Amino acid sequence: MSxxxxxxxxxxxLASLDGRPAQDVPELIESMELAWLVHQVEQRYGVRMExxxxxxxxxxxxxxxxxVLREVIGMPxxxxxx
Amino acid sequence: xxxxxxxxxxxxxxSPEWVDEILLRGADDxxxxxxxxxxxxGGLRRMVALRQARLAAxxxxxGGSLALRLPPSTAYIANLLAGxxxxxxxxxxxHRLTAFEVDxxxxxxxxxxVVEPGRVTSSPLSAFADVEETVTARxxxxxxxxxxxxxxxxxxxxxxxxxxxxxxxxxxxxxxxTRIDGVPLPGERIVxxxxxxxxxxxxxxxxxxxxxxxxVRPPDRLTGDSVLDAVAAEPxxxxxxxxxxxxxxxxxxxxxxxxPQLKRMTTGGEPVPAATAAAFTGKYGVPLGNMWGMxxxxxxxTDLFGEHRPALTxxxxxxxxxxxxxxxxxxxESPYVGVSDPDRWADGWLRTRDAGTVDPDTGLxxxxxxxxxxxxxxxxxxxxxxxxxxxxxxxxxxxxxVLHDDVITAYAQLDAPATAASVQAALAERLAAYKxxxxxxVLDAMPRTTTGKLVRDRSVLRQAAQGVAR
Lengths: 82, 470
Prior knowledge:
The structure holds 2 protein chains of 2 kinds. By secondary structure, chain A is mainly α. Chain A is about 55% helix and about 5% strand.
């Protein structure tokens, strides 16, 4: 498995939702964008993410999402299901 | 075969019995819903009876008024059906509204009972929430109209309007669905991604599914893999019902499994670009259907086999005509509550505010986008949708709204290196001078509704522009 997506990776994944440039992706992540981001991470890593509501709650910003993904991708057994 | 609709006079259905006759009827062990596990009709009836007792205890009765502010969930379904079984009028509020917006709505509606989420334990990605609801009695007013359901317009075209639909009108829409070729058939499944609080998911999935014996099954989560898991979970044919965003989810799944159960995906909400449709059908090999409808009417026209894209066939029993470039749909009564608005409805015709054409030979309808106003500039007619489409297609324009605010005014979100000057120069190449926006306001982000539509309210856009200027 490759390293956890960093901030630039997350911006690129969010940008792929509607084709906008990554630099124009806002810091705040809305609900549809969150679904898209989780979907993109799952496709890239070939796994299913199992996050709790607290972790989802922290993924409302790009920085928060980067933190959560860095944490959970370091503990695949707990948060991923192949 | 459908139940309860063949009898003459279903239009007389106004008493609470319609819920039992049209929606809940069926064998106790018939699996009609799925939410974390199968729910049969016996179980659903028990859930509804439980909510009915709670709502009655809060003072709700026949002719009363109930407001639901719940995310899509079994609690939402059970309270909705319970309210109707009590003979109450049920107002549906999107759970994503802000507290400010909810207060405004409750002020306008004055419901006697409000049901809201007390505790939500599911994740934000859940298609169906796990909700423990709270029931609150208020000093509201009983229903002032015979409508069974009250919804607000999207608000993308101005101040939201209160829209009412009677039980007979809802039953008539269910009946339209039963006559459309390509809808899920009894014994099949609808994997529903569209919100059941809005008309597509509410009638197209929930009410039609309950009526026709089509199992309504949301995926565990709104991700591509979960949607495909829901399709694969049972051997019966499945139709995925969503909005264009969901096509993107499925089209971007890497190496999807073979899914012989997948019968079709159908989306509503907005036209689907041809390239998106091609990417989906290329990957899954099933039709991508399209539907056009509105809160005031429900489904208006469909192309469920993707044969006529972007054109659509009017739904059985509805007439669509073009008048001065705008599509009008037949509707016996005005759907608007509390105001007489002949500019929106008159003489049995509802103005859709969608630009479009009706082919005189085939009757096929083509929707060409919102038509909020055709304006006169120096005696010349300007179609603002044309200006907006031209602007939106320019390189570097992420999103744009054009409206008439004394002069033609454009609001646009741009990508670097595009600038206001470069956009205006490009427009000058593409549009006659009288059509061009006199004002171009560049915004950091276009205001959008909770469902992601661009906001067209000029006061909201003006405010956004002032925010940039500060």
